[in-house]
Design a protein that fits this description.
The protein is an alpha+beta fold. The protein folds into three domains: 45-102; 120-208, no CATH class; 209-308, no CATH class. It is built from six helices and 13 strands. Helix 3 (121-146) packs across helix 5. The chain is elongated and about 70 Å long.
């Protein structure tokens, strides 16, 4: 996707209520909203916090049992029962969410309340597990070849046997036993790449979390710092950069200290709604433009932009 470097033009117009609104000259397309109250149906709900906790307990129980009985050639009845319970709980949570009404934030005007960055711990731990498995297989290859326990030809042959056997088991619904336990599982070294990608994708928002912020009813922004909440005053800063992960406010010279706000995996504390990076960028671009900043969009889909005070 080509990135536009042309500055955004802003227009001011009177609303039907007599207020002043601001918008992009190249407005983001508005997504149609469906209101379940129009036909009397039940509004969509989100997964409750206790349901998420129950899902974690179910899967961690299965994982613990699998590790505890890892010396066996296959899962026993206890592990299979734990796996079925974990799958059942996950399906039930998705089919019957018992949390509050599901809210979506599609427009900058809907950005209200407190927002904080959250980490997808499930995907992060899954990436760690894949990486560990891949590193273990890579270490086994290096050690066996270095100690002459296997040749390169043996390694390639073992990889082929593992891939063919695993594929046969998968195509037969795991009813066929390819005796994969008799291989050295050298082919698992490929798990390093997807594992590292998952870790990087989920660890970056965790490392670069930024400060929790809150959009007040009067549209002012408060930021949570080490000593409590304080108000964001845009006029104290000369440059603002959003890269899709964070939004950084920088002052010229020895002015106010820089402030970093989250932009990736940002969620509302009150409703649990996700604030996407493009809506977050549109919200801050609108505020900054009304406060005298020159806005330059870099990648609208990713939510990256630059703002500078003339």
């Amino acid at each position: 996707m080509a990135c536009s470097s042309a500055p955004i033009r802003w227009t001011r117009s009177r609303s039907s209520q007599g207020g002043v609104t601001a918008g992009f000259a190249n407005n983001r397309p508005k997504r149609p909203r469906y209101d379940p109250r129009m036909d009397g149906s039940t509004p969509e709900r989100r997964v409750a916090g206790w349901q998420r906790a129950l899902r974690w307990v179910a899967w961690l129980t299965f994982l613990g049992l699998a590790i505890l009985h890892s010396d066996r050639e296959s899962f026993g009845p206890v592990e299979l029962l734990a796996l079925a319970a974990a799958i059942g709980v996950s399906v039930w949570c998705m089919a019957k969410p018992l949390g509050g009404p599901k809210v979506e934030i599609d427009e900058p005007a809907e950005v209200r309340g407190a927002f904080v960055s959250r980490t997808n711990w499930g995907l992060l731990l899954f990436g760690v597990a894949l990486t560990i498995g891949g590193i273990g297989a890579t270490g086994a290859i290096v050690y066996d070849v270095y100690t002459h326990r296997a040749t390169i030809r043996d390694v390639v042959s073992d990889m082929g046997s593992f891939i063919v056997g695993w594929t046969a088991e998968a195509l037969t619904g795991w009813s066929y036993d390819a005796h994969l336990e008799d291989t050295h599982a050298y082919a698992l070294f490929v798990l390093v790449l997807p594992g590292l990608l998952l870790i990087g994708w989920n660890a970056v928002p965790f490392i670069k979390r930024g400060h929790e912020f809150r959009v007040e009813p009067d549209s002012s922004i408060s930021i949570r710092g080490p000593r409590g909440w304080f108000q964001l005053l845009e006029y104290e800063y000369s440059a603002v950069i959003g890269d899709g992960t964070t939004i950084r406010f920088t002052a010229a010279g020895d002015g106010a200290p820089p402030i970093v706000l989250p932009q990736a995996r940002v969620f509302s504390r009150e409703t649990g709604a996700r604030l996407s990076s493009d809506v977050s960028a549109a919200f801050f671009q609108q505020r900054l433009s009304l406060r005298g900043f020159a806005i330059e969009a870099i990648n609208a889909k990713r939510g990256s932009f630059r703002g500078r005070r003339p």
